Amino acid sequence: MPFIPHTEEEVVAMLGTIGASDINDLFDEIPRDLLIKDLDGVPDALNEMEIKRLMQDRAALDIGAKCFIGAGAYEHHIPAAVWDIATRGEFYSAYTPYQAEASQGTLQTIYEYQTMVTSLTGLDVSNASLYDGASGLAEAALMAVRANRKSKSRRVLLTAGVNHTYEKVACAIAGSQGLEFERMPLDIETGKSDVSVLDEQGDPPVAVVIQQPSFLGTYEDADAITNWAHANGALVIAVVNPVSLAVLKPPGQWGEAGADIAGGEGQPLGIPMSSGGPYFGIMTCKEKIVRQMPGRIVGRTTDLDGNPGFTLTLQAREQHIRRSKATSNICTNQGLMVTAATIHMSLLGLEGLAAVALRSQVQTAKLVDLLTSIDGVTAAFSTPHFHEAVIRLNQPVGPVLDALAEQDILGGYDLTTDFPELGNALLICATETKTDDDLESYVKALANVLAK
Amino acid sequence: MGEPLIFEHSRAGRRAFAQAPLSTNEDNIPQSLRRTDTPTLPAVSELQLVRHFTRLSQRNFSIDTQFYPLGSCTMKYNPRACNSLALLPGFAGRHPLGPESHGQGYLACMFELQEMLQSVTGMKAVSLTPMAGAQGELAGVAMIRAYHVANGDDGRNEIIVPDAAHGTNPATATMCGCTVREIPTGADGDVDIEALKEVVGPNTAGIMLTNPSTLGVFERRITEIAKIVHDAGGLLYYDGANLNAILGKVRPGDMGFDVIHLNLHKTFSTPHGGGGPGSGAVGVGERLKPFLPIPVVGKQESAGETKFCWLSEEDIPQSIGRLSGFMGNAGVLIRAYVYMRMVGKDGMKRIAEFATLNANYLQQCLKDAGFQLAFPTRRASHEFIVTLKGEAKTMNVTAMDFAKALLDKGFHAPTTYFPLLVPECLLIEPTETETKDSVDRFVDALIAIKEEAMMDADKVKGAPYSLPVRRLDDVKAARQLDLAWRPKA
Fold this sequence. Notes:
The complex is a heterodimer.
Chain A: H1 8-18, H2 48-61, E1 66-67, H3 80-86, H4 89-92, H5 104-121, E2 125-126, H6 133-147, E3 155-158, H7 164-174, E4 180-183, E5 186-187, E6 192-193, E7 207-212, H8 222-231, E8 235-240, E9 261-265, E10 281-285, E11 298-302, E12 308-312, H9 319-322, H10 335-371, E13 377-379, E14 388-393, H11 397-406, E15 409-410, E16 413-414, E17 425-429, H12 436-451
Parallel strand pairs in A: 1-15, 3-4, 3-7, 7-8, 8-9
Antiparallel strand pairs in A: 2-10, 5-6, 9-10, 11-12, 13-14, 14-17, 16-17
Helix pairs in contact in A: 3-10, 5-10, 6-7, 10-12
Chain B: H1 46-57, H2 80-86, H3 89-92, H4 104-121, E1 125-127, H5 133-150, E2 158-162, H6 168-175, E3 179-183, H7 193-199, E4 204-209, H8 222-231, E5 235-240, H9 252-255, E6 259-262, E7 282-284, E8 296-302, E9 305-311, H10 330-368, E10 372-373, E11 384-387, H11 389-395, H12 399-408, E12 415-416, E13 425-428, H13 436-455, H14 457-461, H15 474-479
Parallel strand pairs in B: 2-3, 2-4, 4-5, 5-6
Antiparallel strand pairs in B: 1-7, 6-7, 8-9, 10-11, 11-13, 12-13
Helix pairs in contact in B: 2-10, 4-10, 5-6, 10-13
């Protein structure tokens, strides 16, 4: 019996203790007519060798392409030590550290994570993670409404370059509590938000969301937008890429007062792309609004003997205490991903993380230069970009991407649906994992496809 | 002696050079956008790092090192193959927005996982996107609301929740813009049917139930409850936290539930990871199919060829929408898929049988040893409740004290003080993967603690003594917030 250790003798002895003659007797409180005989939708068991063969065959179908897609998930080198340690059974098979004395390893790791991630965002406090960057925006918006009691508005203003999927997710999660999301127009020359509309606003929004770098790889005028928001009684929510923060000005230093909440997708910190998850959502904020923060938080304290130790704290915000009045329904978060990210950040250090950010920027810039040397390809914007950039093709993007995929080049993210105002636009990304030869192979393939 | 913080191992100028790319100054990031301060990341060698985090790991209890009978959390063994196969480069390295042509292996697994989950739950369709149980709950209640709104029944915004429910149930209802109506539990552990009849009405959106309930007993009048709620125009939501108890024996779909979430990190043995990631797949009956969260995996057959594809906004236009940046916790889903294939058709019901056998055996042993059961006339499901209110009264030793003393004896504590309506309770769930021997040793440990408490209550109240730290000052933690380390100026 897979994973069940009982011997026949033990079963007999245990039933004897219980006073039952058969295991089925233990189900005698279940109405008879509800019991089922068979599960026809589940195949017969495979042993480990058989399932390994099946999974290897299937994984082999999905491998071998060179990936130039970013759009919220990024291929970075993950040092071997990261998952080697994160999958140690003591981390992998532990649960939420409710029994603090028996969970100091997980708790100290989260405390170290909170230190690193708040330091990157330039804010005071962090929680122990949310599910991912997209759902994190929904939680941040709900938190902003709770924290900004002076505002009557339920409208959240997004910069033009906020990931469209994040907006959809935020609507699905926070929409039923009356939040509305509205997007600033895009300046199609610069790829940045058109800030001139800010002065045409009627009632100011409850919060402004600034994604930096934007989904299009460009840089918003984060200082000016932050100052406008604060002058108009709105909170500022930053959506950031943690790798970029090794180099870029942190949200806590935007404008005069800094962003109030900063979050984003944690995946670039040592998490495999893995078809979209599990990743983790970063959430940090100013200390004065920490009691509105959702999710678990770890604090350092002392034990009965006065020695330092770690424990979950401020739990009165959470669902297991506050029930229907909790800050969120979140319970399980993405603990193991935070463990991996903490190991990853520690191993790279600031210099290593900055090198990843800069190398990625340089490789993407090279790719843009090479691709725009092809007839029919132009750069969409003249402004600087981080490690993603938009190029424009002289023909529809979809069929071009299909043709590239046939040559095992995943050429980027088609922007036609999300940003129709940009025409035949394609979002490309080259991280530090792409060599100059990789870039050349993309250029060659695209030149061939466009020449047909 | 504690393990220093990683920052205390750090020395400026040290680095794990081989693990990051060479730096460059050829970038074109404008000076005005750069940061000028130095964030607090450590500077350590790879060996220092490996030692630090290995030592930290050793300061944890885990399933791999200890019996972990945490009620309602299903801390069963997490098979190694599930992890190693999910990390195959073809799966771990796949970009979520990669084309379907480069994802047929992954999509095939996901399609089959949907089919298997449909079969074990008795539902009509499954979406795998919710990233944890609580997000599955959110999806479920949002679907119930969407169904009523689509029927022009906007006023139905009350969610009925038994008082024994997980805290996530009422918190979810609030997040979905609903109000919560709580109903009491009868003395036998079943829902108070008369109270239910009183609260249902034209405003009822639905009821959220866990069955077996968090009290560790099967809700015997479930069919009657389903009828009452359906007759009132409401729908039934099944919280799948306790599905392990009935897997392959009874199905929520057959009990009359309209929507269910599963905790794949409980029933289907994906790791708990120190607090996640989970996965909260949802299953629905016919009525809620149009509202499933997207994306869902579909199958196309043409000219003898099978192709798997994503179903999204265009295919499911009434969907409640997207809940994650991509398609949920894909890597967790792969682990659950491997587990289900290894357990197979016959193995599913064995899970429920042996989880129930272990729980009833442990319950009987503790009863025989003089511990008081919360529901002594009932069968245990896969878990049960001991109440220590007698011990608390006579010896002044609480459930918390027993929990901490268990840690000294090498056992993780059961869930304490939940459900809230049973005083001084331990909610105990052994799971099917524990041997009789480890269950016996756990019984011996509880008996020994009780004896120690009779001799010297203060000693038990001071436990634990053998762990990295003794009891922690939670009040200080909340009053003098220390949530991040900062270098001395």
